[in-house]
Amino acid sequence: MSGPRVLVVDDDAAVRHTLEAFLLDEGFEVDTAASGEEALDRLACQPTEVAVVDIRLPGMNGNELIQLAHRRYPGLRFLVYTGATEYALPSGLLEAGLQPEHLLHKPLFDMTVMSRAIVALAEPRPRGSS
Amino acid sequence: MSADPEPDAASGPPRLAANLKALARSARLMTVLTSEGELSRLVVDSLRELTAGYSANLFLARDAGLTLVAGAGEYRAGSAPVGRRLQLGEGIVGTAARRGVSIAVAETRADPRFVSEATLPLTRAELAVPVQQHGQVLGVIDIEYAEPHVFDPAEVEALETLADQLAVAIENARLYDLQRALYEISAASQRPGSPEELCATIHAIVARLMDAPNLSIALVEGDGIRFPYATGPVDLPPPRRKRYRGLTEYVLRTNTAQHVSTERLAELVRTGEVEPRARRLTAWLGVPLSTGGEPFGVLAVQTYREGGQYGEREREILGFVSHEVAVAVERKRAEETLRQSEALYRTLVDNLRDGVVLVQGDRFVFANESFARMLGLSSRDLVGQEAASFVAPEESEQVVERYRRSQAGEFEPREQELRLLHSDGETRIEAGVSVATVQYRDGFASLGTVRDLRERRRAEAERSRMRGQLQSIIDAMPSVIVAVDLAGAVTAWNVQAELMTGTTAAAALGRPLEQLMPWLGAHMENVRTALDTGEPSKERLVRSNADGVRYLEVVSYPLGREPADGAVVRIDDVTERVRMDRMMSEAEKMMAVGGIAAGIAHEINNPLGGIMQGAQNVLRRFSPDLPRNLEAAREAGTELAAIRSYAERRQLFEMLEEIRAAGQRAAGIVSDMLRFARPSDLRSAPADLASLADRMVALAAADFDLKKRYDFRRIEIVRDYAPDLPSVPCIATDIELVVLNLIKNAAQALHAGWPASPRIRITTRREPSWAVLEVDDNGPGMDERTCARAFEPFFSTKSPGEGTGLGLSVSRFIVVDLHGGEMGVVSSPGAGARFTLRLPLAGRPA
Questions:
Q1: Mean pLDDT across chain A, nearest whole number?
Q2: Do B706 and A110 touch (CB under 8 A)?
Q3: Residue-wise pLDDT tens digits, B562-613
Q4: pTM surpassing 0.90?
Q5: A chain contacts of residue B608, beta-carbon cutoff 8 Å
Q6: Are B739 and B775 a contacting pair, CB within 8 Å?
Q7: pLDDT at B30
Q8: Are B168 and B31 within 8 A, CB to CB?
């Protein structure tokens, strides 16, 4: 049986691959993208529950990607996974439903923090909340 | 003239003979009369009575002429014209005087020499008999008759005899007058009085003896002539004049009396003896003043009266007077000299600052004004008083004993200190007394000089007070303050210097500074430079001792004006300041580094993510919990258990964990550094410190559990939260970091020390304007040095790899710089450590 589909968007191959491997081991369906543009392509091909988004990306950045993707796929949920420690959630992302607990800083000592967050996000929300 | 005064009665008429007898009695009476005036009146009265003449007159030679001094008879005016003058040769009287013989004119109308006298118009006969002594005519007796008269030769001879008698009497009277005058002068010169008064008296006496309207006394004084006395109606000399060839100088030069008439003056001017005078001179008589040696002055009289002249008699009189005047002037001069000399000594002695006293027979015989002033008296009051009564009673016995011993010839120190008693009977005067024994008035006396020591004592007390104040001031300084003289010897040493060196000021004063502070070493050169050049110098010394490294700032200032007469050295322990400076510069560095790091943090965190995630994945793929792992092992022709067994044998798991941990540490460093660079306008929000602390305890526990390093569960967590503590505005994530850091530190400290019952207590409480949170443990604690450095960046007690040393410095930065709060630690070895952070309840001040 397969869990929720997760899209990992990160331009750093090592990060992208290790996350993919971990999430696969955790039983998620995993797609990856190295840029925002590629991510939008993937989302167009596959219905996806959760996107794990790096902020610094070549081309469009993570913020733009999230806002754009949110407009196209309102059901899609996001986790921000960034290496910029000073990063704070901009208001646009709060509108996209992101909460402070959806912001994770690189590097994670223990990726189970992320898998728990994905599971929590992918759980069906009570009706009318969105 | 006959030597026999008794006329022959038989040879003349009887009436005449009887009268002559009476006349002889009168003449005898003359010899006992000593006043010329009385004598004159007696003579004329007797002649008037005894002769047939209607007028009897006596003329006396005066000033080269004749003056009527007395007359008796029937004058038209009622009385004789006393003072009437006749020239020698004028009339019968003048002719008799000039010739020195008696002239009897029986009928005056028939004699051309006769000159009619207005007040005696009836005269028909006249008899003029000269009064002579040693061939000198002293005067003339004149009898005038109202009828022509035939003179009996015996009558003439009897009158001549009487005239001789009269001459002797006049001479006697004059001598007596002169002697009286001399006696008066001598007496006057011995009476107290100014030289001017004496001169005036002399002048009055001389004027009685001769015609002397002007009298002057000239005294030689240096290159001039002084006239201490010059009185008269006209032609007075100035009080002092230069010498020239004048009459005074002429007398001095010749050292003889000089009688100068108009003719004589003309002659002296012609021969160049004297310079011409501006004023006409009638008669001048000057005699030298001398007491045996060179003449020192001239006594001169002068007259202006027409026909005035001085003769031998005046010269003699003035000669006698001059000797008395010379003696009197000498005496006055000597008295004046003595008086001046006495005044000089008196002035000197009275103006000495010190008191001077002479004590003889226990009483003051002299005391100067300074001494009297000390006692509040005048020097007059002291003479005759008992000296001991002015010694403070408590000391008088001792002083009297000393005085007795010294009088007895026993040795007593010349200089002594004693307390005098002021005349108010109360005030004591500390005095330094020096005594010498001197000869005074046929005996010994004690000559004392007395110095009032109170002024000196006051000055000493003031100096000592100033020194004390100065010492208090330098003792109040937080710095070590030391002063040295030019030779480098210590002249001041404050309390801080005592504390630093353990040497007391008393022990340090006077010793070389190099010896007392050998560690000053090279700085001593700077001290010398300050002394030599007058320039201050400043140096920082590093001194290591058992307590660690101390930084000392040594500043040397020259003392006094150039050239310096010493230097003051100030030493401050600036260790704390140096550390703070370093901290600040480290923090600044961190800020700069942080700014750059923010840019690259992302780049570092990404590969760290790859590393750490990769390591976690590898570990997980050894795990039997994942079915895919078992499958993969089988597909590879082995069992997962075998692979795990291999990995354990080769410690692959530990190695992988270490990779993860190393990655996490690197991430922590980046994160810490970035906090310094974080903009400070991050929005803060009210947070509840108690729940924040709880979250961090949980996090710390999880962290420790995860690492399996410490058994966090063995640590008792005591929560002591104040119920009334309101939420405090803060940047929660930052304060979380701080609290987590403190909890971790406490746990690590407990792990290191590991007491029997390890405990961490977390306390919150409210102070008036602060929210306070404390984390304390009962671990091993820290010594003072570690405490002091706890907040320094990169200072860590942990072994390398365990801590970066940034934790507490960042915490402090967050609390103090970002939140306007306070952070501190209290700890001592064996007593645990308590970290306190205070956050302002009102939020960070603007």
A1: 87
A2: yes
A3: 666 788 889 888 888 887 777 777 666 666 655 566 667 777 888 899 999 9
A4: no
A5: 83, 106-107
A6: yes
A7: 67
A8: yes
A3 touching B, CB under 8 A?
no
Query: Distance (Å, rounded) from C-alpha B412 to C-alpha A65?
Result: 118
For B613, the closest of A22, A83, A105 (CB atoms) is A22
Query: Quick check: B718 and B683 in contact, CB under 8 A?
Result: no
Residue B58 confidence (pLDDT)? 92
Q: Do B604 and A83 touch (CB under 8 A)?
A: yes
Q: What is the mean pLDDT of residues B49-72?
A: 85
Whole-number pLDDT of residue B676? 55
Between CA B222 and CA B539 the distance in angstroms is 77
Which of A32, A108, A112 is the best residue to mutate to test the B interface, defined by the most B CB atoms within 10 Å of its own CB?
A: A108
Q: Which two tokens stand for residue B648?
A: 């354990």
B191 touches chain A (CB under 8 A): no
pLDDT value at B553 more than 80: yes
**Which strand ranges, in their side-by-side order, compose the sheet holding B822-827?**
B716-720, B759-767, B770-777, B833-840, B822-827
Query: Which of B598, B607, B671 minimises the CB distance to A14?
Result: B607
Where residue A127 falls among pLDDT bands split at 50, 70, 90? very low
β-pairing, A5-9 with A50-53? parallel
Residue A102 has pLDDT above 60, yes or no: yes
A-contacting residues of B 624-663, CB under 8 Å?
626, 628, 660, 663
**Residue B716 φ/ψ, nearest 5 degrees:** -80, 125
Angstroms from A124 CA to nearest CA on chain B: 26
- Global ipTM: 0.82
B104 against B703, higher pLDDT: B104
A19 touching B (Cβ < 8 Å) = yes
Which residue in chain A has the smallest CA separation from B668? A107
Question: Contact B601/A25, CB-based, under 8 Å?
Answer: no
Confidence grade of residue B282 (pLDDT, cut at 50, 70, 90): confident
Per the document, the length of chain A is: 130
Does B601 reach chain A within 8 Å, measured CB to CB? yes
